[in-house]
Amino acid sequence: MDQDIDAGSKARAFRALLVNTLVCGVTGSFVWFALIFWAYLETRSVVATAVIGAAYSLAMAFLGPAFGTFVDRNRKHTAMLLSAAISVVCFGLSTVLFVLVDAESLLRLTSVWFWLLTAFILTGSVAGSMRGIALSTCVSLLVEEEGRDKANGLVGTVNGVAFTITSVFSGIVLGHFGMGWCLYLSLGFTVAAFLHLTTIRIPEDKPVPSEGDTTSQFDVRSAIEAIKGVPGLGVLIALAAFNNLLGGVFMALMDAYGLELVSVQTWGILWGFIMTAFIAGGIAVAKFGLGKTPVKLIVGCNLVNWIICSLFTVQSSIPLLTVGCFVWLLMMPIIEAAEQTVLQRSIPFEKQGRVFGFAQMVENAASPVTSIVMGPLAAEIFIPLMTDGWGADRIGSWWGTGPERGLAVMFTLAGLIGIVVTLLFRGSRSYRELTTIQVEPEAEPEPVPAPA
Q1: How far apart are CA 413 and CA 405, in angstroms?
Q2: pLDDT averaged over consecutive 10-residue blocks of the chain (452 residues)?
Q3: What contacts 254, CB < 8 A, 6 or more positions away?
Q4: Which of 95, 129, 276, 416 sits a CA distance of 20 to 30 A from 33?
């Protein structure tokens, strides 16, 4: 009976965490989407959106190991409460700043107030990554091993629902009511999520330090040692980092590309539809799992994504862009669930937070490099190239000309590079070693004997 009660408590806690994750995900991404849209529409600066996006990823990268260390050394509920509290404070400060500072000062890129507002919103949004790390470890804590791949699919579904809601409403609210209402709503929902989180009880013991653990609050060494203990895992994390490196093209240029073709309201609604692909991918994992060998799905889905990246901007077409982004996002929760399942299955529970935090650091440190470079590269080389330069003269007759066609060239080049790198990983020894990490299917229930 005790075991049944314990299993029931874990199931209830996991469901409650999924609901809370939905609310927190909506608030954090809502205000972040709005900031990116607002900054571009007010300044028309690709460089500004690239720098803001890069700052977000750099903060995620720098804080990942610290967040992961904190998660491992404290109860998961404590880590989630701290994450929510930081978001409440930061969104509150950004709201106060927006109300007190005049619009003219806020809308100048040279203004300290603009960048202070950005810093507050960024910090509040990045704080949510600690609860993401904690939630990944909670899958190991609250879900039996054979069901963790499907649980990771549920987490992906919830994240997809959150992004869908925010991508629609951030554009609508920003377009019709302005940035102020984006901040007011985010603050209100963040406070509600924090209060809801205080009511959740996670059945967990206080973590006990492992032998050889350091006292550092930035414990990268233990994460590296754990990763080294799993053949091929380091290369898999490096592949994810390289994908994020190329993914910086999306971070820096996607909103600029889309907003050259449609209005901000249409762009927000369009992304609301596109984000349903993320939900569909998560539901597929939650329903069917990842198969016996998750790493094979990682490679296959990456190949699909980079092929899409090389093709979906070959013409300035909203339908083509929509289909390409839809397929791209359909693959993302499958890739993420597979990566998480490999880590959860191969890394001891007491070190998972640090490993997830280290992986976050490596992966998120990559995309800002591309993002910082992409903005100036687009503005100084590729946009002129395809507007009235050599590219417009040579291939403009069939590729098209104008600023968005210069951005399109960059997407295609990124996709071709991604295909080559993924195929190289597919033929490596690391890939063969990782195929030994397999997911056991859920046990079928024992048949009930027929009465005599």
Answers
A1: 13
A2: 58 87 84 80 71 77 86 90 93 91 75 87 89 88 83 84 74 79 89 92 78 68 86 88 77 76 78 82 88 88 91 85 88 88 86 86 72 76 84 80 83 90 92 78 46 42
A3: none
A4: 416
pLDDT computed for residue 306 by the predictor: 92
CA distances from 401 to 28, 324, 378, 390, 406 (A): 37, 21, 14, 11, 8
- For the chain, list the domains and their CATH numbers: 2-199+220-434 (1.20.1250.20)
What whole-number distance in Å separates Cα of residue 16 and Cα of residue 99? 34
The whole-model pTM stands at 0.75
> For residue 234, what are the CA distances in angstroms to 226, 327, 338, 370?
10, 27, 15, 21
Q: CA–CA distance from 418 to each of 309, 334, 427 (Å)? A: 9, 18, 15
Q: Could you give the 3-state DSSP secondary structure of residue 144?
A: coil
In angstroms, the Cα distances linking 52 to 264, 372, 424 are 18, 9, 32
Shortest CA distance to 168 belongs to which of 267, 243, 72? 267
Q: In whole angstroms, what is the distance from residue 290 CA to residue 340 CA? A: 11
Which one-letter DSSP state was computed for residue 207? P
Q: How far apart are CA 24 and CA 185, in angstroms?
A: 12
Q: What region, left, alpha or beta, does residue 291 occupy, with left being phi > 0 and alpha being psi -120 to 50 degrees? A: left
Write the CB contacts of 80 (distance below 8 Å, at least 6 apart in sequence).
17, 20, 130, 131, 134, 135, 197
